[in-house]
Amino acid sequence: MIQIRHQIPGRLRLRVPALVRNRPLADWIEHELGAVNGIEQAVCNPGCASLVVCYRHTQLDAAGIRAELEAIIARPIDPSRLTCELADGRCRSCQRSAQDQTPTLGRILSLVLLAGYLGYVLIREHLLKRPVAQNPLSPTGLIALAGAIPLLRDAWHETFVERRFTLHQFLAFSLVLGILMGEALTAFEIILVLRGGELLEGFVANRSRRAIRRMLALSVKDAWVWVEGQELQVAVAELREGDRVVVRTGEKIPIDGVIEHGEAELNEASISGRSEPVFRQIGAEVFAGSYVERGAIRIRAERVGEATYLARMAALVDASLDQKAPVQQRADELAARLLRLGTLSTLATLVLTRSVERAFTVMLVMSCPCSTVLAAATAVSAALHSATRRQMLIKGGIHLERVGTAPCVCFDKTGTLTTETPEVAVVIGEDEDTLLYWAASAEHHNPHALAHAIVRHAQTLGIEPETHGISEHLLGHGLEAHIGEHRVLVGNARMMATGKVSLRRYKDAAQRLIESGLTAVHVALDGKALGVIGIRHQLRPEVHETLARLRADGVGHIALISGDEPQVAAALADELELDSCYGGRLPEDKAEVVRALRAEHGPVVMVGDGVNDALALAEADIGIAMGSGGSEVAIEVADIALADSAMGNLAELRALSRQTLRVADQNYYLAVGTDIAGIALGAAGILSPAMGGLIHVTHTLGILANSSRLLRAP
């Protein structure tokens, strides 16, 4: 029975029991449901019998989609309607690679058994000196053939359904050829490498997904609900729309809603990316995942559970990971070329020489996939090792390959281009030392980041603040301190208005600071304005140099996408001479900007560090997380993590990517060159079948030596 597991306007997740390990039905549902007017995308996961549907809620509803789905399942599958449309080597209708849905435990067990048998054979042959039969009907040949079934199935699907040539067909061809030629151990090698790689890839992907769900989880078990003048403790899972939820200092908000009583300073970094607390009062909208730094508020719940903004963002991140279109690895293209070349060479040798031995020699030279697999794989492995040594964590060779060719790079602001630490940029007043003395004295015991910046700046100039015993922090306004017989006010314009301080003299100066992207902090002593302080976040070291290197390396468009106020983001973009700026953007807005930039400029690299960047990182062709001080969820969802947050590593990444591609090309031409030489010698009868095997050793050693140069990359 079809069950609706999660529903928000425009997105529906259903459980369809008939989907369990049924890839043909999944393909059929995706194809037919995707053709329904109003449905934008349908993605099936046969492993957990799940179907995610994105639709236009103004045209369809959940009941209509469910009825369409039931009708589709009831119709017989028409294989002729499932043929993939290919463009640029990518499958449009699938938008994903075929996946082996064998349970993970079974795949691990099969890998262990295959490895164990291979170990037994090697011990028997090399230690006990007892030969093992490797012909097709021997136990070794039959076991190798059984272990190759998943690979053969993938090769069949890509050949006759998707109609494209990849490494799967090449490996399958080599495997079958090895068994038929009595080289079953070669088949074992192919199977073990492929199985091990798939398991490792699946482990990393599943680990990342679990981490995303865990980190974006609300992590609040109980809440206090206001009922008839009393507060009752209720499990968060039992909250309903319309409940009045009370949240105090240090507590996390468990629902989306509107403040109906009280005021507070909220940390909304997980929602907007802003590092400074935001003042919220009656009538303001708040989101689950934010927490109260100071104050107490009562919120009328409007969205709870999976309908909250944080939960919807988690679902969108997960969906974006699923929807990433597969990119064919460089080895696939090289393998397809070599497969065609090897087949033609073998047939031509047989026809021209009429010698089975010579044709067999040519086939042996061309049968092993090492030349193409190692050409890219060894270069990528060496480059990944070199990157890791420099605190650049790359989650796959394809990400290293693409980061060097993307023409568009997007940056988040806070925590990426700037640090989390604010600094005093400008001090405006008649006597700046006096202004800083009273401001630092008032803020000396205040834990706020802006207060620390003022105190630190004063001490840098040799101004030691005076201690005081009485101070009052006014939410959303600033601080009032009594130092000796003096009254000091430090805060925003509202704070000065409350204290009846005239700002006429510094009004224009404060406005200029705000327009330039700085936070304006007014200071008053005994009712008289002393001046205004402009505070900003520190730019990371090497920002200007890195941006210049990126432009010199071929990046045609650099954009800033930030959750900060538009004028703040625009000021930084102007300072850095960026090509475009998008300020005041929420997480889904950032992802939308990434999609728009991709449509205009091509593949996009997104660089960010926070939870609010996770969706944009997942949406981008390459997501790069600044690791130091960055959120774990951003690091998990990103393709590349810069563990030490060094901006210079961005330019180094592109340089390493280009060098890796050059080495891979060199390896490929070396491998193909030796193969062509082997073909010529074999066809001429100069090279025996036994000597044909040495061809693989020759180009393998050459490839390894060439790739090792990347280990020493600066």
TrEMBL record:
Belongs to the cation transport ATPase (P-type) (TC 3.A.3) family. Type IB subfamily. The keyword Translocase applies. This is P-type Zn(2+) transporter. The keyword tRNA-binding does not apply. The lineage of its organism: Bacteria, Pseudomonadati, Pseudomonadota, Gammaproteobacteria, Chromatiales. Keywords: ATP-binding, Cell membrane, Membrane, Metal-binding, Nucleotide-binding, Translocase, Transmembrane, Transmembrane helix. Residues 219-317 form the P-type ATPase A domain. Its EC number is 7.2.2.12. It catalyses: Zn(2+)(in) + ATP + H2O = Zn(2+)(out) + ADP + phosphate + H(+). It comes from Marichromatium bheemlicum. It is an enzyme of class 7 (translocase). Pfam families: E1-E2_ATPase, HMA_2, Hydrolase. The chain crosses the membrane at residues 172-194. It is found in: Cell membrane; Membrane. InterPro entries: ATPase_P-typ_cyto_dom_N, ATPase_P-typ_P_site, ATPase_P-typ_transduc_dom_A_sf, ATPase_P-type_domA, Cation_Transport_ATPase_IB, HAD-like_sf, HAD_sf, P-typ_ATPase_IB. NCBIfam families: ATPase-IB_hvy (TIGR01525), ATPase_P-type (TIGR01494).
